[in-house]
Amino acid sequence: MRSKKFNLAVAGAVIVLGVVAAASGLFGKATTAKSPTAEAAEATKVAKANPALSVTTTLPRTVAWPRSLTTNGNIVAWQEVVIGAEIGGLRLIEVLVNVGDKVRRGQLLARISSDTVDADLAQGKAAVAEEEAMLAEAVANADRARQLQATSLMSAQQVSQSLTAEQTAKAKLAAARARVQSNELRLSQTRVLAPDFGVISARTATVGSLAQPGQELFRLIRQNRLEWRAEVTATELPRIQPGQVVTVELSEGITTQGRVRIGAPTVDPQTRIGLVYVDLPADSPARAGTFARGVFELGEAPALTVPQSAVLLRDGFSYVFKLEGNNQVAQTKVAVGRRVEDQVEIISGLEPNARVVASGAGFLTDGDTVRVVDAQAISK
Questions:
Q1: β-bridge partners, 256
Q2: What is the pLDDT of residues 305-355, one digit of tens each?
Q3: What is the value of pTM for the model shown?
Q4: b/e sequence 68-95, b meaning 16+ C-beta within 10 Å
Q5: For the chain, how are helix, strand and coil distributed in percent, rounded to 5?
Q6: What is the per-residue pLDDT for 375?
Q7: Quick check: helix, strand or coil at residue 108?
Q8: Angle at 276 between CA 273 and CA 281, to 5 degrees
Q9: Partners of 248 in beta bridges
Q10: CA 350 to CA 307: how far, in whole Å?
Q11: CA separation for the pair 7, 3 (Å, rounded)
């Protein structure tokens, strides 16, 4: 009986010890387990402690770059003369030039029928001859009246009439001569002449048509001079000076050199655009009426530059990655300007002494930790 009780006591003790051991194991696991948030934070810390990408860095450089201004505009004639008829009611009987012909000053361009004018001129000359004869008679009578004025052979009234007839004859002769001059002028107007040398740009004259005073017959580009009228904003206009060289890009990649003649003294109040007049050489392949793009050379200006590989375009903006403490990078928004070969000008947003990532920036995000190596190590 005692032996049986002893065995039961030993079995109970074993069970108690097992329960205690199991409870101790569960308690130990509960105290060492970690929450998911703590595990994620620790994983992020471990990831940042271990650099994910090797990059090279560089410092911005300040260099002197040529400054230019690109704009658009129309090519037009320096001066286009409208050549018209000065006499009306007569027909064109001959047209001697066509569009594209080069003419010299005073060259005959067209002829208008002069038959009517010739007849009027002949009639006028005959009237002059008649009035000259009448004047000669009136002068003789006036001279005789002056001689007899002191005697009683002629009355004062007769003397006065003779002197008046002389003055009247002189006036009639002057009027006849004026009519002759008028007809001679009309005769000269039947010959349409070039007012200056240049090239014919338009022609409306047609043989057989009836000319009217002021009617356009031809258009002439004076001295064959063309100009490019560049459209420049009001803020850029003060930078344009007379004499500056301009490269005008024509169609099909053809370029020509021009020089600024003058800038407009005013700008359009609606568009804030002013015109710059650029003289083009006479032998340029430019054509009036065409649209062209041009580049103004404005000299050199200092520029803060970084390699093009350091500049990223994201969401329509330009960014660089600056290297900060603990080898972490900060994404920085910048404004870019000119580009020369593989260098980009930084207008704003970056300090001259800031170190930026030169290669490998495309795989970075703000706050990443990097390992900085030299360019040779990256290439390997």
A1: 248
A2: 999 889 998 888 999 999 888 888 899 999 998 888 888 999 888 898 889
A3: 0.60
A4: ebebebebbbbeebebbbbbeebebeeb
A5: 35, 35, 30
A6: 56
A7: strand
A8: 150
A9: 256, 294
A10: 13
A11: 6
